[in-house]
Sequence to fold (267 residues):
Amino acid sequence: MHESVMWLFLMCLILGSVVGLLAGLLGIGGGLLVVPALVWLLPQIGIEPAMLMHIALATSLASIVMTSMASARNHFRLGNVDFSVVKVLAPGIIIGGLGGSVVAELVPAQYLPKVFAVIVLLLALQMMLSLRVTHSRPLPSPLASAIGGGVIGLLSSLAGIGGGSLTVPYLSYFGIEMRRAIGSASLVGFLIAISGMIGFIFAGVGSADLPAYSLGYVYLPALVGIAATSMITTRYGAALVTRLPTATLKKMFSILLFIISIKMFMS
Fold:
């Protein structure tokens, strides 16, 4: 394996450990950190700017498949997954997740970082203000829920995230208890990540400029590095929840997201 690829793999091991810790501690998807980190790391090994965001988004979603699967399994064991909710959201979520890869192919490469920046800015605002309004209203009709799921899936896939930051407030708004909203969002995140990942794999197959060790737009050395450590450190992050001021840390993290968003938008 080339030295530069080995260097990237080692950097992704470090990145994965940080991502896993924050995911467990703050309950956030790792994509919010993975995508901008890969946008900085990948050019160091010669990845072309034209496919930089595609590879970053696809690899982020692939890493979320691993972590969200473990999270969804834990929530299922605890009885936190409301399958009646997941069932009405799933069609839109899957179509939206696949649609994100299609839109990413259609958007000119130089505008993709700006699309990501806008989505992250909105997520940072939501995280800072904790916009979770609970109502006693029921979920909308299956068609309206599918459309809502489609929007969540599309935006999440375009940002390379699992979508918990969008799904939890959406379910909370319709009166789903927070514990079940978070548990259901973990399974929804898995569906977003796997559909988005599949879309990016097929979109990238046959592209002549892809680097070695790629599966479509998914860059395997980065994926293995991130997944290897993030799946270990997530449990340590969860164990720290009761010991650290997570509300304060979440607001600090949202400020970091503001900075990342502005930097991506200006680049």
